[in-house]
Automatic annotation (TrEMBL):
Keyword Cell inner membrane: no
Single GO MF annotation: hydrolase activity
Keyword annotations: Hydrolase
UniProt record similarity statement: Belongs to the UPF0173 family.
Residues of the Metallo-beta-lactamase domain: 7-189
Protein name: UPF0173 metal-dependent hydrolase DHW03_09240
Organism of derivation: Pedobacter yonginense
Keyword hit for Hydrolase: yes
Amino acid sequence: MKYTYYGQSCFLLETSNKKLLFDPFISHNPLAKDVDTKAIEADYILVSHGHGDHVADLVELAKQTGATVIAMPEVAEWAQKQGVEKLHPMNYGKFSFDWGTVRMVTATHSSGLPDGSYGGNPAGFVLEVDGKQIYFAGDTGLTIEMKVLADIYNLDYAILPIGGNYTMDVDDALVATKYFDCDKVIGVHYNTFPVIEIDTEVAVDKFKRENKTLLLPAIGETIDL
C-alpha cells in the first residue's frame, strides 16, 4: 500500500486495486502549490467533515475522477447540490465495500460547510484493507473514546492531526497512541497556518523517546506502508 501526502489533512492511499483520497484541500493551500490536481486519480473520496480546509477541492475532484464520496449525510447532501453524483452517506457505523471495510468513528471537533450550512458531525475513519488496519482520526482533540479502538482493532498505522489549536498537538497525539495501542503514526494537519506550526524535529524526537515512529512525509512525497 502507498501513501501520498498532499498537505494539511489530504492524502491518497493506493491499495491493491483502489485509490482512496481523503479530505481534499490542495489548490487553496500555498504549501501544496506544486501538486497538480489535474493528475490526481481516485476511486473514492473520504471526507471527515465539512470545513473548507478539508473540502475545498472535493467537488472538482469528485467530478474529475468520478469517485464515490464517502461522508456524513449532511456533507454528502451538500456535495450532491454542487453536482456530485456518486455518493455513499455514512454515520457512526461500519460498511463493507468490495475493496475493504470502513468504520466511521467519533471526532471531537465542529463541522460547517463552505456555504455556512450545517455540516453534521465530524468523524474519523478506520479502514480494513489489504490486510492492514489504518485509523485516520480526522480533525479531533484527544478523547477517551479512542480507547474503544484498542478493543476492536490491532492498528497498523494511525494518521493523526498534530498541529494543536484546532486539534490534538504532538503531546496529545502521543497519549492517543497509548489509548488505541499503535506505534506507527503519520502526522497531518500541521504547518499550514501560523497557529498550527510545529517544530518537526522536536515532534519526531518526542515519538522516538517513547519508542514510537512519527512519519512526516513532504507534500507530494509517497511512502510505502
